[in-house]
Amino acid sequence: RAYVEEKIYKKESVSRFFYRGAFFRYERPQAGREREFHQIGVEVLGYAHPFIDAEIIMLGDLILKSLGLQNYSLELGSVGCFKDREKFREFIRKELAQIQEELCADCQRRVVKNPLRIFDCKVEKCKKIASKLPSLLDALCERCGKHFETVSEILNSMGVKHHQHPHLVRGIDYYTSITFEFQHKSLGAQNTLLAGGRYDQLVEEMGGPSIPACGFALGMERILLALEEEGKLPEVKDGIEVFVCYISEKELPYAFSLLTALRKEGISGEMDYTRKSIKSQLKRADKRKAKLSLILGEEEVKKGEVTVRDMRSGEQFAVKKDEVVNFLRERLKK
Fold first, then answer.
1. 91 lies in some domain
2. Which in 177, 191, 222, 331 has the greatest CB count within 10 A?
3. Are 334 and 292 in contact (CB under 8 A)?
4. Which of 265, 271, 285, 270 minimizes the C-alpha distance to 326?
């Protein structure tokens, strides 16, 4: 909507976006489908070439691999153009009309409203019936069929393993042509980690011109569940690495500059601004589970040194300010 309202298509012929944030579901929450969830998405508007579909899919694969995930598969499908879908919809409606009573209550309504949604049903008896229905891929027109096969060939040439799914419709009706899902093998019914496809009519439906588009979204909570299943959740560090203490207000600027320098070097740190005694500051450091404390007084400032206290052993070391980062790194490894 923002793309249409801001008329971004007039400013550039091709647009690439990514977003992240919290979202909310209207329907009843389930395992893996919380009321509030967090999503990261990627969108490309302006390209109709199958290579951009492949690029988007490969980006999704790269993200999952970079997180260390392995136990997932890529399902590749196509819902064709609107004409393909309408023909297939009528054909499926006739097929299902003969066995409508065997379907769940939701799918019985879907037979009338949108029979393709049966392919997205999670009820076991409906899944069995749907698996025996004709393939959407066999109903594609020449143009949509060629697009699908080209994307599949590109993925094969780049070593991206995938399965050509005969009934991958996704849960949103605006998709056209390519659809895809990265599914994890250990998450049960809600097993989709990352999914998307092409939606060439969406911009026009929102009031803009006809502009091809494709993209995907990944669910951060699902990703965390998958990482947990594979035993690859990163270790959450408890506490901080360094607490910076200072004796008086005179040393505060020196202490503050040191804390800033440590953070720039990737060392987590903290300090107190309530003018407490060194003893109280060290108690605060201990409460924050700091591994090391830096003590700065008048003498340290004059000498350009820092007193480093190991909070575990109680040992103290006088270290030159320009050597403190390297000293801390070595000490934190122990």
1. no
2. 177
3. no
4. 265
Crossing angle of helices 105-113 and 82-97, rounded to 10°: 130
Give the domain range for residue 175.
2-80+140-229
Say if 100 falls within a structural domain. Answer: no
Percent of the chain with pLDDT over 70: 98
Rounded Cα distance between 317 and 306, Å, is 8
What is the side-by-side order of every strand in the sheet holding 178-184? 15-24, 36-45, 213-219, 192-198, 178-184, 72-78, 163-164
* pLDDT of 171: 63
Q: Distance between CA 271 and CA 264 in Å, rounded?
A: 15
Residue 297 shares a structural domain with residue 194: no
Residues 263, 219 share a domain: no
CA distance 199 to 212: 7
The string of pLDDT tens digits covering residues 37-85 is 899 999 999 999 999 999 999 999 999 999 999 999 999 999 999 888 8
Q: Is 90 exceeded by the pLDDT of residue 294?
A: yes
180 with 64, same domain? yes
pLDDT in tens, 149-172: 999 999 999 999 999 998 887 766
Cα–Cα dist 85/155, whole Å: 25
pTM of the model: 0.74
Contact indicator for 155, 55 with CB cutoff of 8 Å: no
Residues 252, 248: Cα–Cα separation, whole Å: 7
Would 255 be classed as within a structural domain?
yes
Over residues 103-110, the mean pLDDT reads 86
- 208, 229, 250 - which closes a domain: 229
Tell me, what's the pLDDT at 110? 84
- At 147 the pLDDT is 96
- Start-end of H helices in 116-243: 124-131, 142-157, 202-205, 220-229
Contact 36, 23 (CB under 8 A): yes
Indicate whether 259 pLDDT > 70: yes
| CATH number, domain with residue 261 | 3.40.50.800
